[in-house]
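Hi all, posting the design record for the shared folder.

TITLE: backbone redesign
STEP: 1 of 1
STRUCTURE INPUT:
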């Protein structure tokens, strides 16, 4: 396992573009801390984002994992490019000639995906603790370490998304086309969601019950947007007569669906490598 992971990390680090994208990703994750410095002072409108409670424990776990998940596209480019380079530079064929089996090849890619997701989760965990203890109004241990299931959701979400990207990289072979396919698939899911929600099942939850099994929607369901949880947003909604009853919790069924997709993506990736004449 260590040998396989070492091979993949060397490939990424020796590629200048992949190295820069990986470093940029973690730098951008740290930019979440800059939100604390954002202040608006326009006439009577004055507020400081950090004072709105976005860095309060335990809300910070929800907020930071949601924002951090949006930056996963930088590593997605690395994952797709990593696979495209295998075909472009012939390293896949060379690895197989050197004695690596096709199963070990897929394992090495999956280990890289898991490592990226794990490092991202640890990074978010440390940064959230630092920001929380700096700005949170609540620092009791019981409150600090509650709602940390969002970190689990974040990790599973990244593994699922990167596994999808890895599969597309193997399927299409070209990084640009793979990313284009990802965009097309997201549009496809949006169209299906619209048809189900507004045409076929306009007055029921059936559309959402069906859409939860689509890969990108399943990933989205792991971490629901956190902004409407803020007390200020709730107060504005109440004044306007809008009372949103949204479920922000992480459901075990959502994790199971994404884990199932991870298994499917990795199995399909292995089957593609196994059948192709490399």
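Okay, here is what came back for every position:
SEQUENCE:
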């Amino acid at each position: 396992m260590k040998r396989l992971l070492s091979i993949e990390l060397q490939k990424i680090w020796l590629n200048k573009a992949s190295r820069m994208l990986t470093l940029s990703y973690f730098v951008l994750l740290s930019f979440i801390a800059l939100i604390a410095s954002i202040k608006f002072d326009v006439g009577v409108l004055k507020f400081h984002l950090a004072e709105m409670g976005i860095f309060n424990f335990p809300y910070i776990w929800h907020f930071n994992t949601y924002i951090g998940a949006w930056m996963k596209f930088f590593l997605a480019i690395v994952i797709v490019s990593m696979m495209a380079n295998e075909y472009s530079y012939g390293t896949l064929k060379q690895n197989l000639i050197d004695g690596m089996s096709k199963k070990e090849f897929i394992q090495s890619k999956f280990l890289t995906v898991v490592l990226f997701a794990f490092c991202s989760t640890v990074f978010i965990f440390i940064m959230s603790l630092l920001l929380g203890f700096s700005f949170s109004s609540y620092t009791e241990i019981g409150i600090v370490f509650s709602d940390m299931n969002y970190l689990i959701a974040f990790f599973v979400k990244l593994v699922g998304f990167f596994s999808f990207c890895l599969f597309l990289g193997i399927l299409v072979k070209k990084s640009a086309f793979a990313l284009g396919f990802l965009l097309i698939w997201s549009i496809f899911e949006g169209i299906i969601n619209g048809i189900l929600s507004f045409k076929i099942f306009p007055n029921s939850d059936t559309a959402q019950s069906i859409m939860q099994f689509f890969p990108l929607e399943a990933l989205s369901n792991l971490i629901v947007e956190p902004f409407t949880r803020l007390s200020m947003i709730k107060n504005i909604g109440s004044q306007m007569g809008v009372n949103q009853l949204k479920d922000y919790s992480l459901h075990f069924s959502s994790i199971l669906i994404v884990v199932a997709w991870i298994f499917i993506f990795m199995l399909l990736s292995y089957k593609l490598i196994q059948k192709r004449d490399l």
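COMMENT: The chain is about 70% helix and 5% strand.
Let me know if anyone wants the other runs.
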